[in-house]
Amino acid sequence: MTAPSSGRRWWELIGEQAAGPGAPMRPQVVTWEVSKALPDGAILIGDAGTVTVRGGRLRPRKGTRYSFSGTPRTMGSALPCAIGARTAHPGRPVIARAGDGSMSRGTGEPVTLARYDPPVEVVARMSSENRFPTLRAGR
User: Fold this and answer.
1) 113 vs 84: CA distance, rounded Å
2) Got the DSSP string for 48-61?
3) Mean pLDDT of 28-40
4) Closest by CA position to 78, among listed 88, 70, 86, 68
5) pLDDT value at 129 more than 60
6) CA–CA dist 125, 61 (Å, integer)
7) Of 115, 113, 121, 114, whose CA–CA distance to 92 is shortest?
8) In the chain, which end has fewer C-beta atoms inside a 10 angstrom radius, N or C?
9) Are 6 and 28 in contact (CB under 8 A)?
10) What's the pLDDT score for residue 131?
């Protein structure tokens, strides 16, 4: 199998996983839809945990920049990093991806969003499981 054909097959597989029915909505559906809506040149910021795993399945676009946290010690970094990225690059779309565990870590950032209204899109996965830190801790 050649690299281009295996790459095509990979994205077909990701699309098939996203197309599967289910309730609650599968995380693959959100990742697939974000990939389709992601504009060229976007800056995508992701937190630690399962959001990082799903972020690796986003289909890249021209000029897209990715920054995903790699360790559980940085939970809660997506939103403040996205605000900073938007401030540094006001002409580029910025999307923050975080889980509910990460969103519960930062209490000042939603206030910053409300007060200054920077155009930052937030995709939060509400799983109520906070699974990654628990697994990493061996529980």
Assistant:
1) 11
2) SSHHHHHHTTSPP-
3) 85
4) 68
5) no
6) 22
7) 121
8) C
9) no
10) 53
Q: What is the dihedral of CA 70, 73, 75, 81, to 10 degrees?
A: -70
Distance CA 115, CA 121 (A): 15
* pLDDT score of 135: 44
Cβ atoms of 52 and 70 closer than 8 Å: yes
Write down the pTM of the prediction: 0.74
What six digits make up the tokens of 16? 């098939």
Residues contacting residue 47 through CB under 8 Å, at least 6 positions apart: 68, 69, 74, 75, 76, 77, 78, 96, 97, 98, 99, 102
Q: In angstroms, rounded to a whole number, what is the distance separating the alpha carbons of residues 39 and 19?
A: 22
> Residue for token digits 């939970």?
75
Task: Name the helix (H) or strand (E) containing 13.
Answer: helix 3-19
